[in-house]
Design brief:
Distance between the termini: 61 Å
Shape: globular
Helix content: 40-55%
Radius of gyration: 26 Å
Order of helices and strands: HHHHEEEHEEHHHHHHH
Number of domains: 3
Number of helices: 12
Number of strands: 5
CATH architecture of the largest domain: Alpha-Beta Complex
Length: 383
Amino acid sequence: MPPNKHALLGASSSHRWLNCTPSAVLEREFDDRESEAAAEGTAAHALCEHKLRKALKMRSRKPTSQYDSDEMDMYTDGYVEFVLEKIAEAKEKSADPLILIEQKLDYSCFVPEGFGTGDCVIIADNLVHIIDFKYGQGVLVDAVNNPQMMLYALGAIKMYDHLYEIENVSMSIYQPRRENISTWTITYDDLMSWAEEFLIPRAALAAKGEGEFIPGSHCTFCKAAVKCRARAEAKMKLAEYEFKLPPLLSDEEIEDILLHLDDLTKWANEIQAYAQDAAINHGKRWNGFKLVESRSVRKYTDEEAVAEKAYAAGYRDIYKKSLISITEMEKLMGKTTFKEVLGSLVHKPQGKPTLVSVSDKRPEIMTTDAKNDFTEIEVINND
């Protein structure tokens, strides 16, 4: 990876170093490893950039990658449509808004050596609008109080506030694979207050690797997370419950466990993956453990040859056929045709009740309603 490609205090990792200030310096001790999901996201971003430039009548060469698909085409088209809508809204307020695509944004006057790249920045009279494309489908990203977007906004303001009287800053997350479009607006004054009172002092600590290690949901993509003692200690606090059976736990204890359960499971899986990688690829021997050959499944070496020989032996019923999925069928026909041809033959069953955090955006259902609805579904299925 080229040197200085990523800022120590980058915008994309700001949710991490703002919460856990020593983490940025600590992460420098670990190698960068691009995951398959990250590589796919990079390809989707490149396609978004190309399509948006073409839509705005700019020169661009279409990128190609191993991740090209009808699905990616559809989602990137949606992103471009969304951006064009926001540009049209900006033109209602300003005759000639400034449109920046994949723009490097320098916010180093707030964060030491801080910079990042904005997917799309719209600057008009009284308004800056930051738009960020998220191709991931794992973590749901919200625009509200999103530090990455706020840093991009500060960078854009630093570049152009001498040309525009900016009063408000809007930030939009476009995350199509989660059907998530989130927009949040903050005043210029409130953004600057956040920068002065919170961002600058936290960034000063982070740049020096100082402050307290504080584990939390922001640990998810931290390169140091698997070996972080503070995170391990936080997870091991659950051992205080000594694996009591649920009826022996208090309501407060159960709530504490539920709050940390997802991250605890993820942490345990990360530890296992780290230990296994060290054993397989680096010869590490762990006391009490050994490497063995896992169970495998038989596979045909040549499916065409298998079919020929099976037919020659008189066997005909050797293939399985099934309908393609609803999503694939809709992509094949297009949404309009799909609705016309198959709309009456598709239904979406009511979801079963599930317990989630109060931060989940789905509306709450009452316990009695959930029980009755679930019972009705079971009765119908039994009939």
